[in-house]
Amino acid sequence: MDAIISEQKSIRNKNKDMIIKSYNKFCVPALIIHELLHIIFIKITFSKFLGVKIVQADDFEFTYNLSVGVFYVPSNAFKKLIISIAPIFSFLIPYALFYFGFYNSFIVFSVYMILCLRIFLPSKEDVEFAIGKRKYEA
Predict the structure, then answer these.
(1) At what angle do helices 28-44 and 2-26 cross, to 10 degrees?
(2) In whole angstroms, what is the distance from residue 77 CA to residue 121 CA?
């Protein structure tokens, strides 16, 4: 009996892992948009862009199987704050699509943003860097 229960738990864990991995792959474009917004705001604020580091992570449940860091040198605290919270501006993308008449894309992207909401917001690391609790290691 214990062997059957153990096997059922193993199957459940494999199914859960498969669902999480699939969701994470679905959200990779959102992760790219998140990081691109950091880079765009680095350029807008005329901060020094040092590079991007992408590392494959083992912990797929929380890192989308990727660990991504955008490295830059802000000249003041205000610029650091603006760059750190840049992913919030991803919410302007659906409005731009709607404004320019891409109504179907507006609906699709809005639903995608809801499904990947966690990525379109500034990460814990972004906020900690903005308030000075964390320093990026290159």
Answers:
(1) 40
(2) 20
Structure tokens at 3: 């062997």
Q: Which pLDDT score, from 0 to 100, does residue 37 have?
A: 92
Tokens read off for 42? 């680095």
How far apart are alpha carbons 14 and 104 in whole angstroms?
A: 36
Mean pLDDT by 10 residues, the chain (138 residues): 62 74 83 90 90 72 65 84 90 86 85 88 84 66
The residue type of 81 is L
Contact 40, 85 (CB under 8 A): no
β-pair partners for 55: 67
Closest by CA to 32, choosing from 64, 9, 10, 79, is 64
- For residue 72, the SS3 value is strand
50 phi/psi in degrees, rounded to 5? -100, -30
Q: What is the pTM of this model?
A: 0.77
Q: CA torsion sign, 30 to 31 to 35 to 36?
A: negative
